[in-house]
TrEMBL record:
Domain HD-GYP: 269-479
Entry protein name: Histidine kinase
Domain of life: Bacteria
GO annotation terms (biological process): signal transduction
Keyword Transmembrane recorded: yes
Keyword match Transferase: yes
Gene3D superfamilies: 6.10.340.10, Hypothetical protein af1432
Any one Gene Ontology cellular component term annotated for this protein: membrane
Keywords per UniProt: Kinase, Membrane, Transferase, Transmembrane, Transmembrane helix
SUPFAM superfamilies, A to Z: HAMP domain-like, HD-domain/PDEase-like
Transmembrane segments: 28-47, 68-86, 149-169, 189-210
Length: 486
């Protein structure tokens, strides 16, 4: 459609242009001027399709924009030469005074048409690349967009200046010929009309190319900014389409390499984090009389509760998918402080005395202090902050009667409130040296009785909603200390 519009506009503009700037063409009738120009452009339009298939469509994507420009530009130049030769042979018009003016006018419009059609081809290639998820490899010695803009601006200014010069030369010759038969005012009006005609032709063409440049540039920058924005949010699965054989194509290429490297480093850091958690949890497990299955179950209980609560108005701001994953990964560290408890107390086969229990309770603060050291190195937004909150506060109670800080209500971190329910539930259904394993129903009744005193009421309500999931987790990750009790 853009090609049709350019060809149709050229068929209308060039005859008027020829009459305005060439005194020889001015002697012809409108039909004598228009017919050869329209005929040549019509033939040009018909041959451009097979020529495009041969010289453009067979080329790699990164070559097509330049090929389209030079094909269109070449066709307009050939048509200009044909019209110039036609007038010279048939009417004897001189080359310098007439032929060059037609050559310049037709190729000038051809430059605007070729530029616009090439820019449209660039957009079509970008569409194809984005839809089919393909890419191009920019040349090492590409033709930069900055030089394209400078070239277009230079040619546009040159076209405008040369056309005005041709008009001035023609008008001076006309004034000399007509002499006193034309008043100064009539001459001024005639010259101003010619200048206005040129401006009405060249300015829309120039503005159209500027708009096409801006449109393509905006698309490139939008794709770049969109991917970078998503990367800053932690999404590393996107790539900038490499759709141009210029500096922006190279920029997109380097951006994609950067995103892939960030993705690899992030995976490496996540793996290091998970290994660190596992190592710390395993260390605590070697000194505890509880089994590794307890760690597996409690972290899954925490995740089940968090997933159910993430849309709750009291929790939605704090529980997104990434946070839930960090809570899941950090949960096994809830009793890491037990490594600081003496073996005589930690591994005692019976119930602890009051004094021994006081020492046992220090595991919450010991774990928090150890994790706080790591947190200072990794940052307060790291998984260590959740691990520290869980280790320190999972024995706090909703009514403030817990330990080690007697924290109350919503002052208790959400991570610790979730772990409190998960840890108590698992302790209730598991056999300990001081108690048998309770049934699921009995454990649920005990937790429900603690709603609003021991536990956050909303989290107990969430447990009621996902209790079947808790049962499934307990069954899947059971151990020899866990049994179904009546």
């Amino acid at each position: 459609m853009r090609a049709i519009l350019h060809y149709f506009a050229t068929m209308i503009i060039v005859p008027f242009y020829g009459i305005r700037v060439c005194p020889f063409i001015e002697t012809l009738s409108p039909m004598q001027v228009a017919v050869p120009i329209i005929s040549v452009l019509a033939v040009q339009y018909m041959v451009r399709s097979p020529l495009r298939q041969k010289f453009v469509d067979s080329q790699p994507l990164k070559r097509r924009v330049a090929r389209v420009f030079w094909l269109e530009m070449g066709l307009f130049a050939i048509s200009a030469i044909i019209v110039m030769a036609y007038n010279e042979i048939l009417y004897g018009f001189p080359f310098l005074e007439s032929g060059l003016k037609i050559l310049f006018g037709l190729t000038g419009l051809g430059f605007f048409a070729a530029s616009d059609i090439a820019l449209e081809e660039e957009r079509l290639i970008a569409d194809k690349i984005e839809q089919e998820h393909i890419t191009i490899d920019p040349d090492e010695n590409y033709f930069p967009l900055t030089r394209k803009v400078v070239l277009f601006a230079s040619v546009s200014i040159s076209v405008l200046v040369l056309v005005f010069m041709l008009l001035v030369v023609k008008d001076l010759d006309w004034i000399i010929r007509v002499g006193a038969s034309v008043t100064l005012r009539d001459a001024q009006v005639s010259i101003l009309k010619e200048f206005a005609f040129v401006l009405l032709v060249i300015l829309p063409h120039t503005l159209n190319i500027i708009r096409s440049f801006a449109r393509n540039l905006n698309r490139i920058l939008s794709n770049q900014n969109s991917v970078l924005t998503r990367v800053t949010l932690g999404d590393y699965d996107l790539h900038v389409p490499v759709a141009s054989n210029d500096e922006f194509g190279v920029m997109a290429q380097h951006t994609n390499v950067m995103v892939d490297r960030i993705k690899d480093r992030t995976k490496e850091l996540a793996l290091t984090r998970d290994v660190t958690i596992l190592s710390l949890a395993s260390l605590a497990e070697t000194r505890d009389n509880e089994t590794g299955a307890h760690l597996l179950r409690t972290q899954r209980y925490v995740r089940a509760l968090a997933v159910h609560l993430k849309d709750h108005p009291n929790f939605s701001a704090a529980l997104d998918d990434d946070t839930i994953d960090l809570l899941y990964k950090s949960a096994p560290l809830h009793d890491v402080g037990k490594v600081g408890i003496p073996d005589a107390i930690l591994l005692k086969p019976g119930k602890l005395t009051d004094d021994e229990f006081v020492i046992m309770k220090t595991h919450a603060r010991l774990g928090a202090e150890a994790l706080h050291v790591a947190e200072k190195e990794l940052g307060s937004n790291s998984f260590m902050s959740y691990a520290r909150e869980i280790a320190e506060s999972h024995h706090e109670k909703w009514d403030g009667s817990g330990y080690p800080n007697a924290t109350k209500g919503t002052d208790i971190p959400i991570a610790a409130r979730l772990m409190a329910v998960a840890d108590v539930y698992d302790a209730l259904i598991s056999k300990r040296v001081y108690k048998p394993a309770f049934s699921h129903d009995k454990a649920m009744n005990i937790i429900r009785e603690g709603r609003g005193s021991h536990f956050d009421p909303d989290i107990v309500d969430a447990l009621n909603a996902v209790e079947s999931e808790f049962q499934a987790i307990a069954a899947q990750f059971g151990d020899q200390h866990t049994q179904a009790a009546e």
